[in-house]
Amino acid sequence: MVIQLDYDEAILEIKKIILRSDNILQDVVDFLYNKFDHYSWIGIYIVNDSNLILGPWNGPNATEHTKIPIGKGVCGSAALSGKTEIVDDVHSDDRYLSCFLSTKSEIVIPIKKNENIVGEIDIDSDKKAAFSKNDKIFLEKVADMLVEHI
Ligand code: SME
Q1: How far is the CA of 20 from the centre of ligand 1 (A)?
Q2: From atom 4 of ligand 1, which residue's Cα is the shortest distance away?
Q3: Radius of gyration of the chain (CA)
Q4: What is the average pLDDT score of the chain?
Q5: DSSP characters for the chain?
Q6: Strand 116-125 relative to strand 41-48, pairing
Q7: How far is the CA of 116 from the centre of ligand 1 (A)?
């Protein structure tokens, strides 16, 4: 079970990564993937014109969705609205673009620079309804911390 302390510790670790790393986005992705068991796949998409382009990622498998038009899929919806998307059951969401057979739930957090969406964090979980309000609060903080490093 994830407790608040885990999120607080993770924020401190990510601050250290940002100070010390010369490959911040990849190192933060790797850290999150290794720290939280319910994060089964994690990637950062970068906005480029009207598409999301996959940047650093970590997980057991590569995704075929390396370029997603803004407005398409759960990722594209979050990029359009600028709001975090939490999908408890991906198979009951018509927007869902399937990547991995094992995925059951997903969270997508936009990375915003002065109200412009510059990227997003996308996390798949093999557990149904894996993402809590605490994940949302935590990951929105992480997105804010990464905005200058996109
Ligand atoms: N499921 C996403 C596509 C990206 S993969 O999860 C890596 C979506 O519906 O937009």
Answers
A1: 30
A2: 65
A3: 14
A4: 97
A5: ---HHHHHHHHHHHHHHHHH-SSHHHHHHHHHHHH-TT--EEEEEEEETTEEEEEEEESSS--S-SEEETTSHHHHHHHHH-S-EEES-GGG-TTPPP--TT--EEEEEEEEETTEEEEEEEEEESSTT---HHHHHHHHHHHHHHGGG-
A6: antiparallel
A7: 21
| Chain segment 51-97, per-residue pLDDT in tens | 999 999 999 999 999 999 999 999 999 999 999 999 999 999 999 99
Report the C-alpha gap between 27 and 12 in whole angstroms. 14
Q: What is the pLDDT of residue 115?
A: 87
pLDDT surpassing 90 at residue 1: no
pLDDT score recorded for residue 149? 96
